[in-house]
Design brief:
Arginase, Chain A, hydrolase, alpha/beta, two-stranded antiparallel ribbon, manganese, Ureohydrolase_dom_sf, 328 residues
Length: 328
């Protein structure tokens, strides 16, 4: 794959060239956004990755099925953005590189190490990853692999701060990835903003940790009072101009729009607000992003996975726009 390649394939029987993204949406292999499939990081700008893991959930499993169903629903996406006019596939070299493989799916520490090593290889290849989970525990090892040069900024769009401590004897769970990331110097808490937080808790431990370390916590009531434009401005102020990672938990969206998730909380973002929020981060130097906690078993309609796929497209547009077009 070289710069400008648009993902054209050839019919195996006739040799006729065709573009999968322009085929009827019920046809072709369901790669992320119908991007080309790749078994190498060579000559890529952006890698689309699946992490089918939900061993870190505290209650309702099912997000292991998220990447496959997001891939399926992403066949509904088209190339050109109706607001910005950007076609990410014309802007950058993009491919679906498949799923992270695990040496032992039942060993949480080895899962973390497998993910970290996978993303370190992506980083070393100079490629930006866009990932679909999986539960939110996966973001900690992703950051282990990407933040080798020091702590990065974080935009976390979520119903929960995910800064809780040990749960049932383990720190590797979906309620604690950003506490771990902070403790290990992977994120700068002063350059971290958590947007859309809500829902009652049995302990204030997570909220307290976020506040005490200097993270900017924006509860949903503040988001609603300020409006999306002001929230975007505040988030950009917090993360500044340095490298930043964006993590989008689908439970930040109200379950009226995205019911298929492990820990739903009513009173969240609308689907339109979520899209507007992501679009507001154009121009930030993203080192990677993820969409997590899509749990297809809790939403047979597929609308949650469609939301996840749409968010991946929006994030892909942000990343593609930032790719250095002078690369060859």
């Amino acid at each position: 794959m070289v710069k400008g390649t648009d993902g054209t394939r050839r019919n195996a029987a006739t040799g006729e060239p065709y573009l999968p993204r322009h085929e009827p949406r019920y046809r072709e292999i369901a790669s992320f956004l119908r991007a080309p499939l790749a078994d190498s990081l060579e000559a890529l700008d952006i890698a689309l990755v699946g992490i089918p893991f939900d061993g870190g959930v505290s209650n309702r499993p099912g997000t292991r099925h998220g990447p496959r169903e997001i891939r399926n629903q992403s066949s509904m996406m088209r190339s050109a953005h109706h607001v910005t006019g950007l076609d990410p596939f014309a802007q950058a070299r993009i491919a679906d590189i498949g799923d992270v493989r695990f040496s032992s799916i039942y060993d949480l520490e080895r899962v973390s190490d497998d993910i970290a090593a996978y993303y370190a290889a992506i980083r070393n290849a100079g490629v930006i990853p866009l990932s679909a989970g999986g539960d939110h525990s996966i973001t900690f090892p992703i950051l282990r692999g990407l933040a080798a040069d020091g702590p990065v900024g974080l935009i976390q769009i979520d119903a929960h701060t995910d800064t809780w401590d040990e749960f049932q004897g383990s720190k590797f769970h979906h309620g604690g990835p950003f506490r771990l990331a902070c403790e290990q110097g992977l994120i700068d808490p002063k350059r971290t903003v958590q947007i859309g937080i809500r829902g009652a808790q049995n302990t204030t431990q997570g909220w307290d940790y976020s506040h005490d370390t200097g993270m900017r916590v924006m509860f949903m009531e503040e988001v609603d009072a300020l409006g999306i434009d002001a929230v975007i401005a505040e988030a950009r102020r917090v993360v500044g101009d340095g490298p930043v990672y964006l993590s989008f938990d689908i439970d930040s969206i109200d379950p009226a729009f995205a019911p298929g998730t492990g820990t739903p909380e009513v009173g969240g973002l609308t689907s339109l607000q979520a899209l507007q929020l992501v679009r507001g981060f154009r121009g930030l130097p993203l080192i990677g992003a993820d969409v997590v906690e899509v749990s297809p078993p809790f939403d047979p309609s597929g609308i949650t996975a469609l939301m996840g796929a749409t968010l991946m497209y929006e994030l892909l547009c942000l990343m593609a726009e930032g790719v250095d077009n002078t690369r060859t």
